[in-house]
Specification:
With 909 residues, the protein is α+β, with helices and mostly antiparallel strands. It has 21 helices and 27 strands.
């Protein structure tokens, strides 16, 4: 409020002014109104008296006298006045012109004035008109009518002057009285109040001894006395509070010290199970440097978050029931991740109104106790094992035995307690034996050996016994523990075994002599087998060469003829038959050689990480024409991340065999599906499934037998019957296996199991899942002229190569049928490429290669071997000797042209 912005004196003065203004205003209005009424009544009375006097029949005066009377009575000039007789004519008037005239004819006289009854006062703006009927005293009939009109300006002025003087007087009185009251209040109140305020400020600043000086025993003085008394009591209370606060702080510090140093963990939470505090041991358990890091956290944010739900349930139970939960065990997780056990108590925290506001918890780590209990439980279980256990005190008196000990000895525990173990002595050990035993126990705290004891029934039995001494922290022996096992059966077995060993020794002597004889015979047989195997390898190598040489001519010329546009359709079909038969024969030769190499153990493998997808893509590019011819659709699942540890070439050979079989032995418009399956982390399956007629269960075991085609030889399908045998042998050499399952009428699935190569699998996860496209067409003809020298003694081979290169107009072919002529042409003509046969009568290809490479002008010329030596060791030797490439007969024309184009193109650069 606005009044509150002023000081006390100003508010008192303002209040006095408001009270006086209100009082004087009301009194002034009352008295002015009364005075105004008095004046009006006085005028009315005078007008009425004057009218009666003028109209009185007793008053016989002249008009001039009447006018004089009117003037005297009114005491002020009047504006108009007349008396109207009973005949309606003016008999008295202040205006002479109106005398004798009919009143009704006067223009300024209103008719209602004449019709008024008795006395009528009419107030105008500045006039007052009195109309009176003068009646006959006897009959009461109206005799005269008097009309008197006077001006009221003077009366209004008088009223105004009176009101103004009253207002000025009131204001002057209010001003003087207010000034006096303010002065008195200033002297009596403000100074004393300011003094009191100054003292209170001193008290506020801490001077509790400050007091207000008392100058009077009035209300303000009593108030000051009360303030002084209150200040004194307040000082006492403050001093008491300071003393209490100091004591409270001391108690708080003591309580904090007790909490912080108590041999237990202490913590407290709010209603939402958020931590509000704890001691330093609890913070350390939580893996935090200070208690402040705990504030606001929940158990879900602690190292024991896995138990948070259990802890929260306990908290809510305690707070909901407002009752404690004491000494219960619960698991926890330490800051380092180890599992511990706690003995915990939780109580609700109450406010002054006994409302639950949180929860206080304490716990101790009982992990050691739990471990001890577990160890004790384990020891208790162990104590009741099949081994006999006896415990004695330091004087070797029996204090405990287990059931096994009682069973072995035949004594019950009551018969043994307090007895010396000598009770079991059998008499088989002398005094020296026992002295040595006790010497070992006392010096090394243990002894182990065989004791012969005697049971209660007199039976003597051997035991394998260990006796240990138990010492306390002071190193004093407190107990002895003996653990014994009855070894009667073992002793019996050892005796029996010794007898048998004696017999076996004799048999071994005879067997060694027999083994020496058999070893000598076996060595001779192995030498003969090795010689036969060597002869077999040499025969196979020779046969390979002898078979491949004519096959080179057959297949080579057939490949040339098939592209001869001059042949008729029938002739091309005949040539195709030759090609098919030749390829079948070549495949048979290769498989027989492979089988021989596998059986002789001469096959070599290079095991490395191999991407299954890459090998499958290469196989499909070769088999797509066969699949198209048979109307077979080949599908595969995601193979991009599959990597096995295998020989890449041999894996390709295995998959080609399985896929070609799946195509050949399928139904028309069938499908072949390839997929992989992981067998754990170490193995991988490659499955090939067809939709063929299937194989009867009784024939599955014959599948992998060499030359066994399961009667397929009677069909139109070509095959040798040894592909699966070779496949299984190769896969087994790569630490894998081949399995098959089939359902007649549905199809067959072959799968190859090989080791996974997980280290490099991720390198193939982003492999392009499109099949590799292999272009089998001859490379584009390079129009640059090249010279090729072919050193070969076989005319058919020379003719074949000549026929091939005759179609390559940019290549000039030089032919040499002897090694000497070939070397001479090489030196003189410096060809861009040399084709060299290895098996020649006068000088083999390796010798020719060595001479060519020794010539400075020829040492960078590429030399390609064209030979029927197709054994792996032959290929390895050729590449190691320095041949740029190694082509085996019979030649694949497309491959031959591709190699030539690549080498000639590189030589041009």
């Amino acid at each position: 409020m606005i009044i509150q912005r002023f000081g006390l004196i100003a508010r008192i003065a303002l209040l006095v002014v408001l009270v006086e203004v209100s009082a004087f205003g009301m009194l002034g209005w009352f008295y002015i109104n009364q005075f105004s009424q008095y004046i009006d009544e006085r005028i009315h009375s005078r007008l009425q008296v004057m009218g009666q006097m003028i109209a009185s029949q007793d008053l016989q005066i002249s008009v001039i006298s009447q006018q004089s009377i009117v003037n005297d009575l009114l005491g002020a000039p009047y504006l108009n006045g007349m008396v109207i007789g009973g005949n309606g004519r003016v008999i008295v008037s202040t205006r002479s012109t109106d005398l004798g005239r009919l009143a009704s004819s006067l223009p300024d006289l209103k008719p209602q004035l004449l019709s008024a009854e008795d006395t009528l006062f009419i107030h105008g703006d500045n006039t007052l008109t009195a109309v009176m009927k003068i009646r006959d005293t006897q009959g009461g009939k109206p005799v005269y009518t008097t009309l008197l009109t006077i001006s009221t300006d003077e009366h209004k002025r008088l009223k105004h002057d009176i009101a103004l003087r009253g207002l000025l007087g009131s204001l002057l009185f209010i001003l003087l009285s207010t000034t006096g009251i303010v002065f008195i209040a200033q002297r009596l109140i403000t100074r004393r109040v300011n003094t009191s305020l100054n003292v209170l400020k001193q008290v506020e600043e801490g001077d509790m001894d400050a007091r207000i000086p008392l100058s009077a025993n009035d209300e303000l003085g009593r108030l000051q006395l009360g303030i002084n008394t209150m200040t004194g009591k307040l000082g006492s209370l403050i001093n008491q509070h300071r003393s209490n606060a100091a004591e409270l702080q001391t108690q708080k510090d003591l309580l904090t010290s007790i909490i912080q140093h108590a041999p237990m963990r202490v913590f407290w939470k709010d209603r939402q199970s958020r931590y509000l505090g704890g001691n330093s041991q609890f913070a350390k358990d939580a893996g935090m440097r200070s208690v402040d890091e705990l504030l606001g956290k929940t158990d879900y944010e602690m190292s024991w978050s896995e138990h948070a739900e259990l802890y929260r349930a306990d908290d809510q139970t305690v707070m909901a029931s407002a009752s404690a939960k004491l000494d219960f065990e619960e698991p926890s997780t330490a800051a380092d991740g180890s599992q511990i056990w706690l003995s915990t108590s939780k109580v609700p925290l109450l406010d002054k109104d006994n409302q639950v506001v949180g929860m206080l918890g304490i716990y101790t780590d009982i992990t050691s106790r739990k471990l001890a209990e577990e160890q004790q439980r384990i020891a208790s279980v162990a104590f009741e094992t099949y081994e006999a256990i006896m415990i004695t005190d330091a004087d070797a008196n029996i204090i405990r035995v287990n059931n096994a000990f009682q069973n072995i000895t035949g004594y019950c525990e009551a018969e043994l307690l307090g007895k010396n173990p000598r009770l079991l002595a059998s008499g088989r050990h002398n005094k020296s034996f026992y002295e040595d035993m006790w010497q070992s126990i006392l010096t090394t705290d243990s002894w182990n050996g065989v004791l012969w004891d005697k049971a209660k029934n007199g039976h003597i039995y051997p035991t394998e016994t260990t006796i240990s001494a138990v010492r306390n922290n002071q190193g004093e022996t407190t107990h002895f523990i003996a653990v014994s096992t009855d070894i009667s059966e073992r002793i019996a077995h050892e005796t029996e075994r010794q007898l048998r060993e004696d017999e076996l020794y004799q048999h071994r002597e005879n067997l060694e002599k027999l083994v020496q004889t058999r070893t000598s015979e076996l060595s001779e047989a192995l030498d003969a087998a090795e010689a036969a195997n060597q002869a077999k390898s040499e025969f196979l190598s020779s046969m390979s060469h002898e078979l491949r040489t004519p096959m080179n001519a057959i297949l080579g010329f057939s490949q040339l003829m098939i592209h001869d546009d001059t042949l008729t359709t029938i002739q091309k079909a005949d040539v195709q038959e030759i090609l098919d038969a030749g390829n079948h024969l070549l495949k048979l030769i290769n498989e027989v050689l492979d089988l021989a190499k596998v059986e002789s153990g001469h096959i070599t493998l290079s095991l490395e990480p191999v991407a299954v997808f890459d090998v499958v893509s290469e196989c499909l590019s070769l088999l797509d024409p066969m699949a198209d011819m048979h109307g077979i659709t080949i599908t595969h699942a995601d193979l991009t991340s599959a990597v096995v540890h295998a020989d890449r070439t041999r894996l390709k050979q295995v998959l080609l065999n399985l896929l070609s079989n799946a195509i050949k032995y399928n139904r028309k418009a069938g499908t072949v599906n390839i997929e992989v399956q992981h067998q754990g982390d170490e193995r991988l399956l490659i499955l090939v499934t067809d939709t063929g007629p299937g194989i009867p269960a009784h024939q599955l075991k014959e599948l992998f037998q060499p030359f066994n085609r399961l009667a397929a030889e009677k069909s139109h399908i070509e095959g040798t019957g040894i592909g699966l045998s070779i496949t299984r042998s190769i896969v087994e050499l790569m630490n894998g296996s081949v399995q098959v399952k089939s359902e007649v009428g549905t199809g067959t699935t072959f799968w190859v199991e090989l080791p996974r190569d997980r280290i490099t699998e991720h390198a193939y996860t982003d492999h392009n899942p499109e099949y590799a496209i292999i272009n089998n067409a001859v490379s584009a003809i390079n129009q640059t002229q090249h010279t090729v020298l072919y050193i070969e003694d076989n005319p058919s081979n020379l003719n074949l190569v000549s026929e091939i290169l005759e179609r390559r107009k940019h290549i000039q072919l030089l032919i040499a049928q002897t090694a000497e002529l070939g070397i001479q042409l090489a030196v003189t003509q410096c060809p861009d490429l040399i084709l060299l046969d290895i098996n020649m009568p006068d000088m083999d290809g390796y010798q020719v290669l060595e001479i060519i490479k020794s010539e400075a002008t020829l040492n960078t010329t590429p030399v390609v071997a064209i030979t029927a030596n197709a054994m792996p060791r032959d290929i390895e030797r050729g590449m190691a000797s320095g041949f740029t490439d190694y082509l085996t007969k019979p030649l694949d024309v497309i491959q031959f042209n591709t190699v030539l184009d690549e080498l000639l193109d590189s030589s041009k650069k």
